Amino acid sequence: MAAAATGQHKLPDLPYPYDALEPFISRQIMELHHKKHHQTYVNALNAAEVSYSKASTPKERIALQAALKFNGGGEYSDAFIKLAWHINHTLFWQNLAGAASEGKGSGGALKDGPLKKAIDETFGSFDNFKKEFTTTTAGIQGSGWGWLGVNPQNKRLEITTTPNQDPLLTHAPVIGVDVWEHAFYLQYLNVKADYLNAIWNVINFEEAEKRYLAAVGK
Amino acid sequence: MAAAATGQHKLPDLPYAYDALEPFISRQIMELHHKKHHQTYVNALNAAEVSYSKASTPKERIALQAALKFNGGGHINHTLFWQNLAGAASEGKGSGGALKDGPLKTAIEESFGSLDNFKKEFNTTTAGIQGSGWGWLGVNPQNKRLEITTTPNQDPLLTHAPVIGVDVWEHAFYLQYLNVKADYLNAIWNVINFDEAEKRYLEAVGK
């Protein structure tokens, strides 16, 4: 995601049409999620940044810096949350792709290569990885995200979660899955587990491998 | 909500039919919300309580606390919620949405200026929850004043005596209102059971 000038963030286009991820994620969900939810947060982020840029006294600027920064104790300021919304969803659209099983893209297909090797080494098998990711992510008590990420200290793949719209700061993101109810409810109703099983068909493992290689420094 | 023996909590029946709150909250939402979501909290609470009763070390007990809080809070919050809703008076379906003259109305006007101001402030505060949670009107036990507050996720309201609770988890409105949470928050005032709210208020202020 390129850096934008103050208040100039844009809703990124999806890399595929709204119905590309069917039948696993419905066109209706993709349209609302992208054109309503994500757009709302881009607009709000831009408005917040413009307000901050108009601050004219040192006192105002200091007050606004605090508002923009991480506020310790795991609580984020409202503006930071909006930025995190934008980051998380931008990552999300890019790590989805039309399902290979539907002949719609490369989604769901993990080719032989460094990522597959690392997954097999870390989790035993691709299936074990998916099972562990799904279980951990289903266990989020509220809104949040499930992540596969690279631990920067040991360069290992690890599964982790973030609550609400918190950005992933402890790991380099490789795959993110939105489990806010708006991400699945219209199609899967209360059965979050069915959504988590289905989404594997549209995970873009090629994008994931690019991120993995960048994170481990190759 | 009567105290239940360990692991014996039950899903309470709704005090009205699943379609009673239409058109403000759809029958489909009420069915899923009650029979699936709330039932799941009850089942998981019972399982957590049974495990807790068998735990023999502090570490085991601490490990179960998140499950007890989440599912116990879910059960408490939803039980309160069903009872503070009622078919809309405007639809001739019940007393929902009608705040009669009385102690609660007086207290709302004293605290917020007017019923409309109260609803506006409640909705603004509740719409501002970042993620899942609940909006509450409650009585502050220290000064007996009505205050608006929120709780995240399924945390129970512990700082105030609950008078009115509104669920803003997306499952509470998404099928009907989609992303427009503000429309749900405006609509729900038509089905808030102010009679029940006043009972709670009087109990909380000690009358």
UniProtKB/TrEMBL annotation, chain A:
Residues 112-211 form the Manganese/iron superoxide dismutase C-terminal domain. Its EC number is 1.15.1.1. It catalyses: 2 superoxide + 2 H(+) = H2O2 + O2. Mn(2+) binds at residues 33, 89, 178, 182. The keyword Metal-binding applies. GO terms for molecular function: manganese ion binding; superoxide dismutase activity. Gene3D superfamilies: Fe,Mn superoxide dismutase (SOD) domain, Iron/manganese superoxide dismutase, C-terminal domain. It comes from the Eukaryota. GO terms for cellular component: mitochondrion. It is an enzyme of class 1 (oxidoreductase). InterPro entries: Fe/Mn_Superoxide_Dismutase (IPR050265), Mn/Fe_SOD (IPR001189), Mn/Fe_SOD_BS (IPR019833), Mn/Fe_SOD_C (IPR019832), Mn/Fe_SOD_N (IPR019831), Mn/Fe_SOD_N_sf (IPR036324), SOD_C_sf (IPR036314). It holds the Pfam family Sod_Fe_N. Keywords: Antioxidant, Manganese, Metal-binding, Oxidoreductase. Its cofactor is Mn(2+). Residues 8-97 form the Manganese/iron superoxide dismutase N-terminal domain. Destroys radicals which are normally produced within the cells and which are toxic to biological systems. PANTHER family: SUPEROXIDE DISMUTASE 2, SUPEROXIDE DISMUTASE [MN], MITOCHONDRIAL. Belongs to the iron/manganese superoxide dismutase family. This is Superoxide dismutase. It comes from Heliocybe sulcata.
From TrEMBL, chain B:
It comes from the Eukaryota. GO terms for molecular function: manganese ion binding; superoxide dismutase activity. Mn(2+) binds at residues 33, 78, 167, 171. Residues 8-86 form the Manganese/iron superoxide dismutase N-terminal domain. It is an enzyme of class 1 (oxidoreductase). PROSITE patterns: SOD_MN (PS00088). The keyword Lipoprotein does not apply. Keywords: Antioxidant, Manganese, Metal-binding, Oxidoreductase. Its EC number is 1.15.1.1. The keyword Transport does not apply. InterPro entries: Fe/Mn_Superoxide_Dismutase, Mn/Fe_SOD, Mn/Fe_SOD_BS, Mn/Fe_SOD_C, Mn/Fe_SOD_N, Mn/Fe_SOD_N_sf, SOD_C_sf. Residues 101-200 form the Manganese/iron superoxide dismutase C-terminal domain. Coiled coil: none annotated. It catalyses: 2 superoxide + 2 H(+) = H2O2 + O2. Its cofactor is Mn(2+). Destroys radicals which are normally produced within the cells and which are toxic to biological systems. PANTHER family: SUPEROXIDE DISMUTASE 2, SUPEROXIDE DISMUTASE [MN], MITOCHONDRIAL. This is Superoxide dismutase. The lineage of its organism: Eukaryota, Fungi, Dikarya, Basidiomycota, Agaricomycotina.
